[in-house]
């Protein structure tokens, strides 16, 4: 059967992609950010997942105000990196896994998560920056990627609890797929940041580190964080952190921490990064 | 059912007329009210993803804006590049950022403009750990600023 063995959580700041694409990743400003992902790259290269499910949000790229799906699963054979106004990122096209994606979509609907199915979609920095951070510069991504877009642009995003439970449903769906596939799920976005209006630049390192602690040891506590608490404490765009709870919900209750990293700033944002493996999987190694 | 599949329950809170997030200072939450107001403004910004549209906008900004059914106030805020006013009138930052990109303004410089400081001051604040949460949680903390 297919199995989700681990989750990687990371911010997806667009400026990180720009820094990498324009060769500024070893500048004084960016070197500490990229250094924080070195062991993650080694970890995932050794793990060799067959498929990545990447939970991210679209930033008014594939979806505008005409259509606002709360959860949308990319079932296409491939996804082109989008031009977000400064040219498409020079990264490989994202190859999907339609068989597994369609299987997950069908399973979710029958499990009462009414997912939107997407068969033609461009993907923006929300998806490609995490791939770059985890896989580095490459001619092609090392495995197929299933995009799961979560609305966090139009208020209200889904609750943290709903995201967590979606992760559990995704896990069930994956485990009912007949082929032997090793799956890693990415939860992306955040950490604390506010991009808009007079309070832009807000960073709350204490909130962020408490959130990382909760993901490690008490994720159900994180599912109880209200929308207003996210908006107030982690900034109006920090609410992207609900997406991390999808990935966390897809893991065991008990997990082992492989890697944890926190850095301020990347442009307007606090960068957080965490890798968790199922305790059962870690024990079996 | 295994414990890993047990779903935690959530206590539902109804939407109220005056949501508690309205107390957050210097912030426009992009809720239903803002989204309804800002549909035309945001769809205008979205149109700037296309280079042909960017050229048409640059050639005659005022004429181009007429395509989107905005209010005169919204059109004025765009022509004046009054970034906070755009948000107040229903703009969403991910959409207005496309206008900024059209103007060649980076996200960090856009943030500096919205906070009323110059680029270097804003960048220095971020390098020093960002805007602190202390003193920035509630509108009452901003009174008299």
Question: Topology of this protein?
Answer:
The complex is a heterodimer of chains A (285) and B (145).
Chain A: E1 3-10, H1 14-21, H2 31-35, H3 38-47, E2 51-56, E3 71-74, E4 78-79, E5 94-95, H4 98-110, E6 116-118, H5 125-135, E7 145-150, H6 160-175, E8 182-188, H7 205-217, H8 219-223, H9 227-234, H10 242-249, E9 255-266, E10 269-278, H11 279-284
Parallel strand pairs in A: 1-8, 2-7, 2-8, 3-6
Antiparallel strand pairs in A: 1-10, 3-7, 4-5, 9-10
Helix pairs in contact in A: 1-5, 4-6, 6-10
Chain B: H1 32-47, H2 51-59, H3 61-65, H4 72-79, H5 83-88, H6 93-102, H7 107-115, H8 119-127, H9 139-142
Helix pairs in contact in B: 1-6, 7-8
Describe it.
The complex is a heterodimer of chains A (285) and B (145). Chain A has 285 residues and is α/β, with parallel strands linked by helices. Chain A is built from eleven helices and ten strands. In chain A, strands 6-3-7-2-8-1-10-9 form an eight-stranded mixed β-sheet, with helices on both faces. In chain A, strands 4-5 form a two-stranded antiparallel sheet. The model of chain A has no long low-confidence stretch (mean pLDDT 96). By secondary structure, chain B is mainly α. Chain B has nine helices and no strands. Classes of the chains: A alpha/beta (285), B mainly alpha (145). The interface between A and B is large, with 57 and 61 residues.
CATH structural architecture of chain A: 3-Layer(aba) Sandwich
First CA to last CA of chain A: what distance? 18 Å
Strand order of the largest sheet of chain A: 6-3-7-2-8-1-10-9
Q: How would you spell out the order of helices and strands of chain A?
A: EHHHEEEEHEHEHEHHHHEEH
What ranges of chain A have pLDDT less than 50 throughout 5 or more consecutive residues?
Answer: none
CATH topology of chain A, which one? Protocatechuate 4,5-dioxygenase, Chain B
The general outline of chain A is globular
